[in-house]
Amino acid sequence: MICPFCGNSETKVIDSRDTNDGKAIRRRRECEKCQARFSTYEEMEIMRLTVIKRDGNKQEYDRAKIEIGIRKALEKRPVGEEKVSKILGDIEFEINSRSSGKNDPNCFNEITSKDIGKIVLEKIKEIDDVAYLRFASVYKDFKNAESFKKEMEKMET
Ligand SMILES: [Zn+2]
Question: How far is the centre of ligand 1, averaged over its atoms, from the C-alpha of 21 (Å)?
């Protein structure tokens, strides 16, 4: 995002929230060079998606749930807000392209919660190893120390 005041390309997000109708995100940014503050409005694509859970139950896709999980995994990690928004966008893009459904606009596409977990793990692994392990331990439900250790070893190779 380019600073409208000095043209610098390094700006950071200092606040981010949904608009009232939930169709866009308002981001408050600060230029890292001249410290000017400005807002941007970014359209959010509404996904009509059904998530099939492990027990077979179906649930409507909830982007907030995924975002909370990722932010929790990244807590106190040296990963900037830019990167967090990027990974969230990437994840949603992948979920969208890997979901399947009939070409009927009234029909929700479907994806399993397992596939969503896999996508999140892949993406999170690209940016931070610790966050990856945190997320994996929740998602993969490591049954014992042994499987956790195996995962650690896989990461080191
Ligand atoms: Zn500036």
Answer: 30
Distance separating alpha carbons of residues 66 and 34, to the nearest angstrom: 34
Q: Rounded to whole angstroms, what are the CA distances from 53 to 15, 17, 142?
A: 33, 28, 18
- Give dist(CA 142, CA 26) in Å, integer: 38
- Rounded to an integer, the average pLDDT of 109-132 is 89
Task: State the pTM of this model.
Answer: 0.59
- 122 CA to centre of ligand 1 in angstroms: 34
Query: Quick one: pLDDT at residue 16?
Result: 84
State the distance from the centre of ligand 1 to the C-alpha of 138, rounded, in angstroms: 41
Position 124 scores a pLDDT of 92
Encoded amino acid at 95, one letter: I
Q: Which two tokens stand for residue 114?
A: 């397992």
